[in-house]
Amino acid sequence: MPQSLPFRSRLATTAGQMAAAASRKLGRGRGQVVGGRIMLRLDPALLHRLAAPMRVTVVSATNGKSTTTRLIAQALRSIGSVAHNATGANMGAGLVTALADNPAARFAALEVDEAHLPDVVRQTGADQLVLLNLTRDQLDRGSEVRLLAERWRQLAADLGPETQVVANADDPVVAWAAQAAPNTLWVGCGQRWTADSALCPACGAPLARAGGRWVCPSCGMARPETSWSVLPDADQIATPDGSVRLRLALPGRFNAGNAAIALAAVCSRGVPKEAALQAFAQVSDVDGRYVQTLAGDHKVRLLLGKNPASWAEMMFLVADSDALLVTVLNARGADGRDPSWIWDVDFEDWAGRPVWVAGERRFDMAVRLETAGLEVIGVSQDPLAALDQAQPNQSLDIVANYTAFQQLRAELVPS
Ligand SMILES: [Zn+2]
């Protein structure tokens, strides 16, 4: 621990780390949140103090923030040590724990909850903000897209030119917020989910879209020109000095978009492009997401679909796979207790696809998928009951929402 920290901060850090270790020993989870809460109780300025000597990048979005932060952290490690909240604990307590675990780090790469972003930027003095997308989350969770966008825009307007905003030009809501910042690097990450940005964020008129661009016919606000962008075949990224080929181990077009913005961010920090691409290629799962594991003779791939936009992306991802598709839906606190958001996903696009339906709210999902024309071939509380119906050696693609995913990861992935 740096001796430069006041005694109170060192005491707070030690006490929090001891509590986190005790919590892990008792099998009560990974302990970051409980440890971090104790640290902040004993020294409310600890996040600020720990972050002060670091160059801090914060990443926020409704979807993709864990993956993008992971890619950024991996690439920054090629030029210096990095503090990173790798387990996705993305509010004050989780952030302070990540910094306390690596207090001499040169860089911090922090995934930050959308609603907490302004506060975290002020406390950490972050000099790089990576903003990906804002879409609706579950119905009874979080703030409305519009409210968050206004908070982000106010934050951006308060920044000085020494703070770089790296923003996705393809999300009109993000573009509207980031436009207010004095120093913005625009990246085209793509955006397949447009249901939450049908209207102009500046004036409310319907946006016109063509060829991946968007423009407001009423006030003229339009997609900013980009210097970095994911190209249509998704494994190429255009950069200011020529295009480069991605070699991602992570699947899906949305992850190519995440990699494009991560690349722009780390190159701005001084990471050579080739070193960044090499680092990205080493990331094959993000806290258990996309992980391939075995259940009996069957390969199982675990995918997280936590809200309408991410569920739609996972459906695109598994569309061409001949794996047995299993959906798992719970509706506990962290999932949002009202699961009717599943009606916002256009499952109709996958009509005819066989699917096994599991989880505590399996009947809600079965009705939704039957209505959309998918072929529900089985229903069970336990998703692994689908294994009995799988062909010998057939793989399983399991798309699960938040608590169902956590449960499955604990069962299937040795920690
Ligand atoms: Zn407009």
In short:
The protein has 415 residues and is of the alpha/beta class.
Description of the structure:
By secondary structure, the chain is α/β, with parallel strands linked by helices. The protein folds into three domains: 1-44; 46-281, UDP-N-acetylmuramoyl-L-alanine:D-glutamate ligase, CATH 3.40.1190.10; 292-412, Alpha-Beta Complex (Protein-Tyrosine Phosphatase, Chain A). It is 35% helix and 19% strand. The chain is built from 13 helices and 17 strands. The chain has helices at 7-25, 32-42, 46-51, 65-76, 92-101, 117-124, 145-158, 172-178, 253-268, 273-281, 308-318, 362-372, 402-412; strands spanning 55-60, 82-84, 107-111, 128-131, 164-168, 184-188, 208-210, 213-215, 228-230, 236-239, 242-245, 292-295, 298-304, 324-328, 354-358, 375-380, 396-400. It has a nine-stranded mixed β-sheet, with helices on both faces. A six-stranded mixed β-sheet has the order 12-13-17-14-15-16. Strands 7-8 form a two-stranded antiparallel sheet. It is globular. The chain starts with 6 loop residues before the first helix and ends with a helix. Bound molecules: zinc ion. Residues 200, 202-203, 205, 216, 218-219, 221 line the site of zinc ion (ZN). Zinc ion is lined by residues 200, 202-203, 205, 216, 218-219, 221.
